[in-house]
Amino acid sequence: MNSSSNGNKSKESKTLYDLLNVKPTCDQKEITEAFAQLEKKENRNSKLYKDGHVAYTTLSDPVKRNLYDLFNVVNGGHETAQDCYSCSKTLFENDIVKEYLRAEKNTRKNEVHHTVYASLEELFTGAKLSLNVNMEVACTKCALLNFVRACPCVTSNNPVITAQCRLCHGTRVCKENCSVCKNTKIVQKNTRLNVIIEKGMKCGDTIRVTTGETIKGPGSTPLIVVVNIKEKKHPYFVRMGEDLHMQKQVNITEALCGCNFTVKQLDERTLAVSSAGMVLSNGCEKCIKNEGMPQRHSQLSSERGNLIIHFSVKFPDKINKNILEDLKGILPPVPAFEMPMNPETEEYKLTDFDPAYKRDYCVRGQVFDDEKPDVKLKAKPSPCTHQ
């Protein structure tokens, strides 16, 4: 009993470092190498791989790793860091987390969000996009003007003029009008930005681009354009995580005897695919390894997802009766059938069914609407009423 309880305890108390088989004092390079070794050994659908992937995403980010070391938080973001640090600031002092929170607090007020739709080809190979972003920036002309100056009535010795002055209304200070921003100090500006989409990015990722523009004038924090990535619909590929899915229809001969076809990959390569030696059933899934989406920050082609092909078999509408006997000799035998010798047995032959056919049901008595019980509906005539 003691040995089994200790074993269960050791499994439950595994840390993220134990999942990757590294020490808590390891560096980023050792974490990346450990996850690469785990990826080679384990299947992507196994629990060990999924746990290792969570450990890698947490420990490979310096902020998330510090949050895990201090507060035991896995994959913590900005809100989690803010909550944990604000609640435990008297107990923990961490320079990385503090700098992270300070930078986020200053930059969130100076962010401009922009959405860009990228094709699956651009997310596969990477691309450089040029965007036109409309943002509010500080007026540059106001900085050149003497925006606030003393009113001419101040030089007058008559206090009545100062109190009733139409320029300053008694404030003794008048403002010089800016013809560009109308004294709002903010103007609309259309800025052209170059954004680099990295290989392996997915829908929901963001790119932060720092501009030289400010919103409060010279010396303030520059504006940051946050580009949100959205994925365009592809004609035949569907992305699910790091895997690509596609549909392929084959006839019954190709399904039984094997077939050859080509697939145009997202990087303009042509993949020659063969199913020789395989029997393709309707709805089966076959895979081409390492031909899915690349992993971000990885230059190795082996660190890609898989291309999963979903097959559908098209059966012929009719078969020539002259070849039925030959097919029966080639295909597996048909199960034997004996007609029941029951007098209540009725014999039928299948006919084609039209999906557009609408059945009329026998309706007797009054019909009410389920959603409106007080509303009566007109009963349909019954075609099955016996005369």
Features:
387 residues; alpha+beta; 12 helices; 15 strands; disordered C terminus
List the helices and strands and how they pair.
Elements: H1 2-12, H2 16-20, H3 28-41, H4 47-59, H5 62-71, H6 78-87, H7 95-107, E1 111-118, H8 120-125, E2 127-138, H9 140-144, E3 148-150, H10 159-163, E4 173-175, E5 186-197, E6 206-214, E7 222-231, E8 238-240, E9 243-251, H11 252-257, E10 260-264, E11 270-274, E12 285-288, E13 307-314, H12 324-330, E14 367-368, E15 376-377
Parallel strand pairs: 1-7, 9-13
Antiparallel strand pairs: 2-5, 3-4, 6-7, 8-9, 10-11, 12-13, 14-15
Any overview of this molecule?
- The protein is of the alpha+beta class.
- Helix content is 27%, strand content 25%.
- It contains twelve helices and 15 strands.
- The strands form six sheets. The protein has a four-stranded mixed β-sheet with strand order 8-9-13-12.
- Helix 3 packs antiparallel against helix 4 and helix 6 crosses helix 7 (95-107).
List the secondary-structure elements in sequence, H or E.
HHHHHHHEHEHEHEEEEEEHEEEEHEE
Could you give the count of β-strands? 15
Q: What is the terminal separation in angstroms?
A: 80 Å
Query: What low-confidence regions span 5 or more consecutive residues with pLDDT below 50?
Result: 1-12, 360-365, 376-387
Number of helices: 12
Helical residue percent?
25-40%
Beta-strand residue percentage: 15-25%
Radius of gyration, Cα only, in angstroms? 36 Å
* Largest sheet strand order: 8-9-13-12
Based on Cα principal axes, name the global outline: elongated
Kindly state the mean pLDDT as a whole number?
Answer: 76
Main β-sheet, in a few words? 4 strands, mixed
Which structural category fits the helices and strands?
alpha+beta
